[in-house]
Every structure is written in C-alpha cells, then in structure tokens.
Specification:
The protein is of the alpha/beta class. The protein contains ten helices and nine strands. It is globular and about 60 Å long.
Length: 322
C-alpha cells in the first residue's frame, strides 16, 4: 500500500528537497504552506494551508489516511529577538507543534517526524561531539522553543503510542540557503580576503540532500520508530576548509589570511557581532553514528559534491539578478 505523508513547510529550503525525494520514492504527499501554492506544485500533489501563527485552528487539520506527518515548518531564530518575537517563537514552534501532533493522534497517524535543531544541544562543542543523549543546553529562545516542542511530543507519545522521531540537524546547506552560509558564498564570489586562515575549528554540516535522504529513510522504516537522531554529512570541516572548498567549486583561489581567533572574537564583541564571529571560530560537531547504525543509513552525497552543487545554484541565481 502506498504511504501517505503530510509535509509542513513544503515550499521552504528543506521542504522542497524533501518533497522531491518523497515523490521520487513513490510516496503520496499532502504538501502544506501558509498560502495557496497549487501553481508551483506537481499536478499529482495534494496541497493544504497550514499556518503556524494560528495553532488554535490546527486541531481541525484533516489528516485522515495519513501514515506519517513530517513537520518542517518553524519560526526561525533572529539575532536580537524582542519579547514579542520570543512569544511568537513559542506560539509557532511549541503550541502549533503540539496541536498538530494531537490532530495526528486523533486521525490515527502512526508516525510523527519532527525536524528540530542542534541548537537544543547548544552552540558549541569542546573536546567531544554532541550526542542525542546529552543533557539539552539551548542558549537562546529558538533552541529553547525547539526543546519544548520535543518534550511536548515525547509526553504525547508516552500517553498515546504515537511514534515520534526527532531529527536534530546542524547547519543545513544547499540551494536556497540563507544567513551565514550564503554570506560566505557571496564573500568568496566577490574575492573578499577573509581573516580565517588560523581558525582551526571543526563543524559538522548536513546538505539538504542528505537530510532529505535521512528523513525519507525514517519514513520508509518498517519497524516502530522512537527516538532522537543527529545527522551530518560525515566530514567535519574547519571554517577555513569550508572557504577553500567553496572557492575551489567556484574556480577561484581562496583568499585567506591569518588573524588570531582571540582577536577576531575581541573585534566581534566590540562591533556587537560576537555571536556571528563565534559561529565562524567555534567547533560544533555531532555524533551521527546512531542514525547510521539504527537505520543502516549512509549519507548519499559527499561534502565536496554537495558544496559544488550549492555553488552552482548560487552562481546561477547571481547571474539572473545581474
């Protein structure tokens, strides 16, 4: 029997890739977004409106016949959140997630895949990678909202038998990537010299293709699925390594020079950009071995191939805006 998935955030950065992968696997998908989107959806895809900002309406979500809910939609973090922004984060990421999961239980949905964030674990690692069994240590409102959503889902699973699979990715990159990764693409493309040669950190990344592949693997897993998994490409890079790989994919020379990381951090504090500099200098590694062992999963795309594909998208998009 053909599986049916209800996918939130299907037009987002990750959602588009997950949707393509599910279709390729022959899975029927109900794709959701905040606004009508039939015009850019494949003709055989059912669509539905889903608005995180109105969780009180989610109890009426039609999930009849759905086997698995994949919940990607979220309100993302901002660098300097206000009290109102924090309230919206809680409303969208916690209250709405709980309401959707309860609707799933009412409709007899078997499995709920929740894409959370490595920010539940924290912002940096020292000495050893994060694991799913670590005590959570979110440092800001976004990470706390993701943790609260996870906890609400686990309580519901314990009370009802809903299979809850939590996925915590680190930085996700690929076509449509924004924020710091996109800024790095832009800086390398413009040939800007970067003071990152002395940064000897290690960061786990996951391409959108590998993340989509893991989610599809969980969807297709025959046995009951309960737990939390960290996922990554399998090759951790320093920031300098990442710049070098981006430059190589662009056919450029990486223009790096050395500045002590301690000085970079000092300048970041002076300019009010401490968090951004920390993300460039700190390590953040994850242990993805449980995901590999539990599901027999291997990331299908190597890091260099994924970066090259991301660069091709970036260059193509930049050329269309010239």
């Amino acid at each position: 029997m053909t599986k049916v998935c209800y996918l939130t955030g299907s037009t987002g950065f990750v959602g588009r890739c997950v949707l393509e992968r599910l279709i390729a696997d022959g899975i029927r998908v109900v794709a959701t977004n905040r606004r009508p989107m039939a015009a850019n959806m494949p003709p055989d895809i059912n669509t539905s409106i889903f608005d995180l900002e109105h969780p009180e309406l989610l109890a009426a979500t039609d999930l009849k016949g759905v086997d698995t809910v994949i919940h990607l939609a979220a309100r993302v973090h901002v660098m300097r959140p206000t009290e109102e922004e924090n309230r919206k984060l809680w409303q969208c990421n916690v209250v709405a997630t709980d309401a959707l999961a309860r609707a799933a239980v009412s409709a007899g949905v078997r499995r709920f895949i929740y894409v959370s964030s490595i920010k539940v674990n924290g912002e940096r690692t020292t000495g050893k990678p994060f694991t799913s069994s670590d005590d959570p240590a979110p440092c800001e409102a976004y990470g706390r909202s993701k943790l609260a959503a996870e906890e609400a889902l686990r309580r519901l699973a314990a009370a009802t038998g809903l299979e809850v699979a939590v996925v915590r990715p680190p930085l996700v990159y690929g076509p449509g990537v924004a924020a710091n990764f996109r800024r790095l693409l832009s800086l390398v493309a413009r040939g800007v010299p970067l003071p990152l040669k002395a940064v000897n950190n290690r960061r786990s990344l996951v391409s959108v293709w590998n993340l989509a592949d893991f989610i599809a693997t969980v969807v297709g897993h025959a046995r009951a699925v309960h737990g939390t998994w960290l996922v990554a490409d399998g090759e951790d890079l320093s920031t300098a390594d990442l710049v070098h790989q981006i430059a190589t994919a662009m056919g450029r020379r990486s223009r790096l020079f050395s500045v002590p990381p301690s000085l970079l951090r000092l300048v970041g504090r002076m300019l009010g950009r401490e968090a951004e500099v920390s993300r460039l200098c700190d390590s953040l590694q994850v242990d993805a071995s449980p995901a590999r062992n539990e599901f027999g999963w291997t990331p299908p795309m190597a890091v260099d191939a994924a970066i090259e594909r991301t660069v091709r998208w970036f260059v193509s998009e930049a050329s269309t805006h010239e």
